[in-house]
Protein 1
Amino acid sequence: GIVNVDNVGELGSLIGIYTSPLAIGVRLNFDIGNGIVSRFGIDVDSKSYQEIIELQRRGLIKVKCVHCHISYARGLSYFKKRAEMMARYAKELRANIVDIGGNMLVAWMTV
């Protein structure tokens, strides 16, 4: 199995407990052009993201999954943008699982 992490602090705690390389999923945060900044995940433009890359390079972690939080932007164009971004970062981190979240095109019905 894997452990999903939302920040580098969580990851630091886990590295000390489990055998390396620790298989993880990372929740990423990136701009999809909707003007909303998510408070969830590791910003791909941050020092924390670079730490993830370095920890993997050193063999302390193995990123298996990339995930993103679904904000209020749930239109098809935003899902497309998320999928493109997630594919980009999955390739960069050599992750074989891409989790773009749920609630895609949910049909809300009234009873």
Protein 2
Amino acid sequence: MKKGLLTGFIALSLLLTACSTGNQANQDKMQEDKETTMEDKMNTMKSEEKVGQSSDEMAEAMASKKMNQGDLAPDFDLPDLDGNRYKLSDQQGKKVYVKYWASWCPICLAGLSELDELSKNTEEYEIVTVVSPGHNGEKSKEDFIKWFESLNYKNIKVLMDESGQFIEDYGVRSTPTNAIVGSDGVLVKVAPGQLNKETLDQIYAEVK
């Protein structure tokens, strides 16, 4: 009888010990999972903080490089008549003169010869022009290219703004419109009307 009771007690003790060990293992695993989750959250927060710091640092770096007063010029990435892409933000380090014009504009047409000569000889600033086929009374892309090539101007770079986004971004209200961009990418000025070589040279002499 005593032997049976002893055997039963030992078996019960083993069972309780096994349950206790299992519960402890489960508790240990839960604690480990909790610590892992907390560690993952901390790592995520640190990563997000680093990304935020990087963005702020980039913004500060760009601001510190600004030499002209104003905001950065709205970027554009447009094809020329041959399909080659021209992206304004890639031109940082150069002063850029952007002229918006149209094939139906008499003032624009009267200034093309001077613009062609200026594009050929000017080294102080880069010159690009923008037209918007299908917008504001402009010809279609195909008709414009055919028409412009017949004029035989070899030095004028014409970019095609088929979406009309340039008109919106630069607030074009009249034709021609001129955008003066500094070497730091800042949009120094947007001015309507025809600008001749003398005026442009005076403007860019003051632009950094």
Protein 3
Amino acid sequence: MAAGLGKRMRSALPKVLHPVCGTPMLLHVLGAAQAVPSERLVVVLGHGHEQVAPILPVSVRIALQERQLGTGHALLCAAEHLVPGPCLVLCGDTPLVRAETLKTLVNTHRRSGASATVLTMELEDPSGYGRVVKAADGSISRIVEDRDAAPEELALREVNSGVYIFPIPLALELLRQVRPENAQGEIYLTDVVALLQVRGDRVEAYRVADAGELRGVNSPEDLAEVERAMVSRRNLEKADADPAWVVPYEVES
């Protein structure tokens, strides 16, 4: 999903086109997604779609979200391109996500037999994130937004990363039932999780080992942090591959 406006970036450039190590962040996410066997890749575009579309591989299908009415609405905008079966949903502003993480998520989902799976992460400071409330068997009972959480829920450190595997067409059918009750008039993907629970369907969680790879880019400061993390990752990969490789370092003045 790459339709967001990205106001906090304070730039006329669409957020997902901002480069990380010289490559638009959206292409980092697509690279990870392409490593997962799938029937097709669909990118939902919105703000600045005229600028974003030309950089996409010709094999990628494009859906247009003309009005930004939430992540759930974005999935509905892609409906005509989706095929029946599990659908991996990613955010276009998480360039550090690893292909290995996505492969493990997909395999975990298949083995579990769950209707849906949410990629979660544990944070020292979970402020602002939806808390993952679990049932006794370890499945997800619900996802509670930070502003709606009770004190005991605010104490939870496992949070929603915004990456999901949903069943198609069931997820689309459920989203069409949603009537926005928030001030923004938006439909969210967490609405699918809630409606699956109402049906009695099981929703599993797979917690990523390194929460840093799911860091989203929402500001120039975030972009700088992600750039540093990507450089560090690549240096370590080169060092692992070549014992003679000397990791560069910066001298602070």
Protein 4
Amino acid sequence: MSELDGEHTGNEETGEHATQGSTQERECRRCERTEGLVSKYGVFVCRQCFREIARSMGFRKYR
């Protein structure tokens, strides 16, 4: 199969790749912010909300 047979993705003139959009917009579960998202362990809360609820979730501060 040659490159001409498939769909055209990206811009060949500038060498850019087509952007891959996510299937779902990621946002904070509490306040719906999209910036500063803590997604590790499937938490999906922003860093501000994480600081408020981290202890009740079982996280400990060591310093």
